[in-house]
Amino acid sequence: MKKLNIIGGGLAGSEAAWQAANRGIKVNLYEMRDGQKKTPAHHTDKLAELVCSNSFRNDDISSAIGLLHAEMRKLNSLIMKAADNTKVPAGAALAMDRDLFSDMITKEISQHPNINIIRKEINELSNDDLWIVATGPLTSDSLSKKIMDLTGEDKLAFFDAIAPIVYRDSINFDIAWFQSRYDKVGPDGDGKDYINCPMNKQQYYSFIDALLAGDKTEFKEWEKDTPYFNGCLPIEVMAERGRDTLRFGPMKPVGLTNPNAPDEKPYAVIQLRQDNALGSLYNIVGFQTKLKYGAQKEVFSMIPGLESAEFARLGGLHRNTFINSPKLLGNKLELKNQPNIKFAGQITGVEGYVESAAIGLLSGIFSAYEISNKPLTSIPTESAIGSLLSHLTHGANATTFQPMNINFGLVPPLDTHIKSKKERYTSLSSRALKALDGWIIENNL
Predict the structure, then answer these.
(1) Which of 27, 44, 140, 190 is 20 to 30 A from 380 in CA distance terms?
(2) Domains in the chain with CATH codes
(3) What is the reported pLDDT for 152?
């Protein structure tokens, strides 16, 4: 029986390895981070390190991302198991302690008898072996070139950005306060899961001016034509699109009442979300940035409540890499012109931790069934995970393909029209889970 080779120990690669190994397949998991060699975004050599955020977003079944959570749990996802076991309060969202999350996945993968972790950079893909490329947003230059040679593509990259993290005990609670928007109570939450920092009109526009004027990271020559993905824009790029963009986006003041000044309605509000189980670290929601470190400290200290903030991590910019999946991939995530090579995770053109892990999950199952010579029926497109796969492999327009988060727009509509959006989404979720259950039973998953 052939071994499965997986390149990349992020969320997608770890999930793919777990799914295949649990089905009796021997797996080589290659990860280039070895304690000495890092990436511009990663800080450790742990598997499945969370970089951009510690949140898997909404865990409610009536949301598309919440539905994807539920489906992955049904499919014995290691990533979801670790998330559930290391979660911290975050309103209706599922957020984790970063370190505990990565520690658990690293331990589970390292101790699995069918998985061999090899700390080595891979830039050649042999024709005789089965490969899954799950190298994520920071695919090495040499492997990127190899992928471009294989696919005939000449552009694989766009930019992503990292939000800063603040020490809780450095936040001024004479100004800031705890409250979830609309006091919404989520799993393990109490309706007060976010720290809120208010701004009046003058403070907001002074902040915008400083944000736009702050020193930014200079692009290297080869980066200058790389586009951003709209789902994770640097905050200063959003501000450049209009002076009021932020207060209608990540700084919107709705659903919040300031107990420190109940008679004053904030013009804008910055929210911080718990980043670790101890509650000592909070990340600034939506504040991914390409400001230089000195400018970040100067500009973010203008936020009321963060005047003396101490940063555990400042924001940063990193390159993301993805292929034109609708053009290049078959229905099992295989490269059409070289089927022994599959792709998984962000490199396929999904955006978000959960979506990346979901595609890793499918690639691991597909590979295990292929190596074992077992038949596998098509996953129903009524499911969130099936609709995401369908979008990547043939549903999206190859000429305009861009990274995509899971959303109900990818799922086939209901036979009957339901006016209420929440009821419609709940019905779509019920249909999805029923369809997925049938697929699991049919294929003995």
Answers:
(1) 27
(2) 4-156+322-442 (3.50.50.60), 161-319 (2.40.30.260)
(3) 83
